[in-house]
Amino acid sequence: MDNALYTVSVPAAREAPLVPPPRDRTRALKRHLVESLRDLREARRPEKLIQPRSPQPQGFAADVVRAGCTQCQGHCCRGGGEHAYIDERTMARVRQAHPDLDAAAIIALYMSHIAEQAYEGSCLFHGRNGCTLAQPLRAELCNQYYCNGLWDFLKLRPLPKHVEVLASNPQTKRRSVVKAVKPEDGTDWE
Ligand code: SF4
Ligand code: SF4
User: Fold this and answer.
1) What is the pTM of this model?
2) CA-atom Rg of the chain in angstroms
3) Given this model, what pLDDT does residue 123 score?
4) Which range of residues forms the domain containing residue 66?
């Protein structure tokens, strides 16, 4: 069992070209950010909206998650559209972390992270190498979400040492063997 190869099955996003972000989509994102900040301003108890950051996989577990999302090419990010799942709760956390930034500066910060080349029709932060937003700026949904294949792997105790990632949809199969071996004292979670 220790040396058995464990297969992590993830979806494979359908092929899409990388394109510069269209102007109408970046405008829609900006409008969404303005609305999220307005919702935060109008909240009766804004401090209650701040969510704790979710623990993130570390070490070998993080390597496998990265391999999975790289092979998959961001199937779940296709739903991020022009909102990236950002809402007033995301803004509450960002405002707490950056008390020096006003609303215009926060919007400019997000706009500066839009992928120069994003997958057509996907989230505007979905670039060739994955998400262009740093984790503290992402919606907590993005920080928490793992598809079933990754989640099943992350729940295993102990983690398997040899893993292959298989990304597939009816049209394609992409396989990647993660040869990394989990160190005996490796940390799995933050
Ligand atoms: S979490 Fe799953 S569906 Fe989303 S990008 Fe990663 S492998 Fe793909
Ligand atoms: S913000 Fe990043 S993780 Fe979230 S949907 Fe967009 S590309 Fe994916």
Assistant:
1) 0.89
2) 18
3) 97
4) 5-178
Residue 183 has what pLDDT? 58
State residue 159's pLDDT score. Answer: 86
Report yes or no on 185 lying in a domain: no
Task: With respect to residue 135, please indicate whether it lies within any of the assigned structural domains.
Answer: yes
| Span from the CA of 143 to the centroid of ligand 2 (angstroms) | 9
| Å from CA of 185 to ligand 2 middle | 31
| Residue of the CA atom closest to atom 7 of ligand 1 | 69
Residues with CB under 6 A from ligand 1: 10-11, 68-69, 72, 74-76, 146-147, 150
Q: Is the model more confident about 27 or about 128? A: 27
- The alpha helices in the chain, defined as continuous H runs, are 23-42, 59-72, 88-97, 103-112, 140-144, 148-155
